Amino acid sequence: ALGSTGFAQKKGAAQPKFSNADCLACHSDPSMTKDENGKQVSLAVDEKKYGASIHGQMFQCVDCHTDIKDVPHSTTPAKPACAQCHADQQKQYESGFHAKALKAGVGQAARCIDCHGGPHEILPASDPASRVSHVNIPNTCGTCHGKTAVMQNTGISTAPFNSYQDSVHGKEVAKGSEKAAVCTDCHGAHEILATSDPKSSIAKANVPATCAKCHESEKTEFMQSIHGKAITAGNNHAPVCTDC
Fold this sequence. Notes:
A hairpin with a 2-residue loop joins strand 1 and strand 2. This protein is mostly helical. The chain has helices at 20-27, 47-52, 54-58, 61-64, 87-94, 97-103, 112-116, 137-145, 148-151, 159-166, 168-174, 183-187, 207-211, 216-223, 226-232, and strands at 33-36, 39-42.
């Protein structure tokens, strides 16, 4: 195998840590692809975007691609798992609606990269250009939940997303508000649960607490009302914020 200097390594020699330059010597080529189940998948990495990403600022290629033994590769490297670093988020995701949909065969259900972007281009949520920055969350969720062509075979309507866009929250976020609620403020981010799940942030009994993340004084007043007291007592017929 060739080392980063271009010379062949001796068998049994200490394995070097390949530099990003070693990897990008091939992977910076935009035309680099591989066949995956009959589909051409890009293996190219944009050096500029990678350098600006959260991963590129913190790690070298081989920090994630830990099984790289030689360059070029004599065997196909394994695809790194997000859980290598993000175990808590992966656990939350696996108990959520999207992961369960994937297991049930809904192929278009969101995976990590669908929301965060490709691993070589992921930006922190604090970056205004990030797919998961506050003002971009509706657009990111809307790439699936706002398109009939994507959602029509899932049994889930695009109506909630469209209603959000027309709501006071949606309109304020569209104007650039960093305070008005976006999808994840109500539904959660990684552990998104169905309304029917008692642990869901949008299960009826939990709606007052969810709205109270922004509207605390209204929640306090509501909980003192006959409706709030009925919900606290377990009466699921009493109205909550979203009913009115």
